[in-house]
Structure formats: structure tokens, C-alpha cells
Write a structure and sequence with these properties.
DUF7982; DUF7982 domain-containing protein; transmembrane; membrane; globular; 8 helices; alpha+beta; 2 domains; transmembrane helix
Amino acid sequence: MTDHDAEPDEIDLNSSVRHGDDRRIERVVMSERGLDAEGRRRYRFGIIVLAGLGVVMGATGIVFADARTLLFALSGTGLFGAVLLYLLVPERFVTATLARRTYAPLAEVGPLFVEAVGLPDRQVYVPTGDDEVRLVIPAGDTVSVDIDEVASVGVHADDTFEGIVLPTTGNGLLAEFRDRTDTTLATDAEELVVELLDVLVEEFELVEQASSSVSMETGQATIAVEGSCYGPPTTFDHPVTAFLAAGLANGLKTEVALDPPPRAEDGHYVISCRW
């Protein structure tokens, strides 16, 4: 075989190697772009959670003078964390571990606050009529709240309703859902739960897996989730449970009582929403 005859084989081999390298580089670039997109989604949720909790603590600090110093300090921490996260990592990947550690300290404040003011450990999500939802901590066993009262954040004590009305993390997530899909929520409970879980897993990636069962007779949705990005969905107004309860309240236009799941060692949590 002459040198001239061998050259085409050598050229073809080098060309194949170059094409293989190009394909590997392309896969790496696509993977990095995917991580960047996931990172942007996760840090946006972190900003929403921190800012929301900062506003909640600030609003409640105005009402309760005895705990004002602590609540204002927590409010400042939440708002500062939201601003810091926005300024420092707008194009960087925010891991699930960072998201959990960012949310965990502030997640402890809600139950302590509810206990301090002497209210039961109940969370009810009530639509306001303007595509928003409020988190209501009622003093009694039942919730019967006028829409105008729910729209007003703060402490309520009158013949109609006694308890606390707070903003919820679910509002920001619902707004993000509307911005991305430009659609309205389903009004049928079974369809709505499927829609919310699809967004939770595929779009927001707040959990790795989710399944559900809906009882139309009793007005209850039982939802099982695994692999929560923000840690166990057992805390006060957790992004996962808040999005589900607020989404149901908004879509069904009714009050939704949330039963957060107990802690589980295997990472499998069962959430109950009743309306």
C-alpha cells in the first residue's frame, strides 16, 4: 500500500475523532445549560421563600410588641438573604443542599410564633378572590372568613373570625406557574391535583416523585411525595405543601385545610389537603 493510498484512511480517522470530540463537547455544553436552567429555577424559589418569610415576620412584628425585636430581626434576615441571593448568584447553580439550609432556620419561626400567641397548630389556605391565597391560622375549630378580611394581613378578633391572616409561600409559586404556562388552574379537583403535581415534579422540580388519590365524596386529596428540594415538607408553610394547598384553594375557590405530614426517616411523606 502506498503512502498516497494510506492518506485517505488517516484523514478519515482524524475527522472521526474530531467529530467525536465535537459531539462530546456539545453534550457537555447542553448539560451545563441544563444545570444553569435548574439553578436559576432553584434560586428563584429561594428568593421567593426568603422574601415571603421576611415580609411575614415584619408584618407580625408590627402587631405583636412583645416579640417585636425578635420578629424584626428575623424579618431583616429573610429580606437580606433574599437580596443577597439575588445579587450574588443570578447565574450560578444553587444546590438543593443550599436551598434546604437557607430555608431551614426561618422555617422554625412559624410554629414558634403560632405557639407564642396561643393559637392551635392549624393551617388553612383561603382564596382572596384576586388570584391570591392567604394562610389563615384560626383560633377555633372551624374557619368562616369573609374574603375582605382574608385580604387584610394581620390579627383578626371579631364576631366573624378570630385568628391570624398571613401571606403564603404558595402565592409566589402560583405566580411563577402562571408566568410560565399562561394558563388558569383546573376547577375539577382530580384534574387540578394532577396538574399541580406535574408542575411540582417536572416544571419546578421541588420534589423527585409524587403520587395522589382524590376523594370527591369527602373532599380530600392525599398526596405522597419523595425527594423534597427544601427538605422534609413538615415545616410551617413549606414551599411544597404551600403550593399544593394554595393551588387547590385557588382552583377550587374554597378553603383548604392542610395536614402536614410527620417526619419520616425514609423521605416518603404523605400530605393531606381537605376542603
